[in-house]
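Final report, closing paragraph on structural work. Over the funding period we assembled a curated collection of sequence-structure pairs, and we close with a single example.
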Amino acid sequence: MPLNAAELLIALAESGRMPLRIRLAGALRDAIRSELGGGTTLPSTRVLAQDLGISRGVVVDAYAQLAAEGFVRGRPGELSARTCPSA
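Its predicted structure, as stored:
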């Protein structure tokens, strides 16, 4: 299932006053857990930033956080979601 930018925008708007990179990481984490499934290729940082109308740096930071938590794997430009991050 592809990542839905419109749903991410709604999640970002509803998540309050936290910094945007934290809100984006949370929205992506929730999407990975509930909708995307393992092996789903995530959009590049440039594409996602453009789709959401935000800075690419925010997306880079969010992806880095998810990689540190084990929710995504791969190399930049070819990240894929993981359903069960290693603890």
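The first helix runs from residue 5 to 14. The radius of gyration is 12 Å. We thank the funder for supporting this effort.
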